[in-house]
Amino acid sequence: MAYRVSDEQKAHFHERGYVHLPGLLTIDEVAELAETYDRFLRREIEVPGKDYCDMAGDYGRAPEDYSIVNVMLPRRYHPAWQGNVFEQRSADVAAQLHGDGMVIDYDQLLAKRPGRDDAVFAWHQDMAYWPDTPDTRTATFWLAIDESTLDNGCMRFVPATVGESSLRPHEPQFGDRGESHALGTTLRADDDVVSVPIGVGDATVHNERVMHGSGGNLSDGWRRAYILAYRSQPTVEIERQLGFTHSHNDDSDVLEHVGIEGESR
Ligand SMILES: O=C(O)CCC(=O)C(=O)O
Fold first, then answer.
1. Which of 33, 84, 240, 265 is 20 to 30 A off residue 45, Cα-Cα?
2. Residues with Cβ within 6 A of ligand 1?
3. pTM of the complete model
4. Does domain 7-223+231-256 have CATH number 2.60.120.620?
5. Rg for the chain (alpha carbons), in Å?
6. Per residue in 3-37, pLDDT tens?
């Protein structure tokens, strides 16, 4: 089944840095992905080192206490997922948004534990996490495995940041790169925030410059999201030449020397 993005949705993505795509996947397609997703959460699929971590705390927290369970690179650790229905449909949509030549740069699972007011994903711009490259174009798909609501910490965007000439300055949130991966920037008093609650099987797609984050999970259920990020083939090649794979287990020298600074780019 092909998913057609309207001209209006394309314009929204390019002008405001994100777009909501209702029904990108069907409920049945999501249910099938959720079976594997939950195997990751139950740790039945092995994810080494810091690629299984908490994005709302430092690496020292016990896994059963993680507020935002983060699984980096699930398709690396469970190759059977490569080519799944989400990958197929998002690849087609990425080409509609950015043209041919966009490839998967990384994938990620972000699951907020029920009843955690600290399951807050700090405000950030994705480029602040990544090395600078000549072509920065990105389409990051954020698929709702559960309904994503104001109560359980749906995505929030500051669309005006797309037009800013430089990134906002970012700071490590819970210690340096050896202690935590999370970076954050400050919401300013005049920033207009748009919260985007979405249904199961809906996705948002955002670019590399839009500032975004999410609030805690005050509900009694999990908030599970499955993320796939597309960038151009040459950009991914440059990242890999630098030794940057989006794994939190990447060489610490590489992680220390990319991203963060902001303002200058
Ligand atoms: O899942 C969240 O709350 C944040 C996700 C995010 O920041 C991202 O996918 O870039």
1. 240
2. 110, 121, 126, 140, 142, 155, 212, 214, 225, 227
3. 0.96
4. yes
5. 17
6. 999 999 999 999 999 999 999 999 999 999 999 99
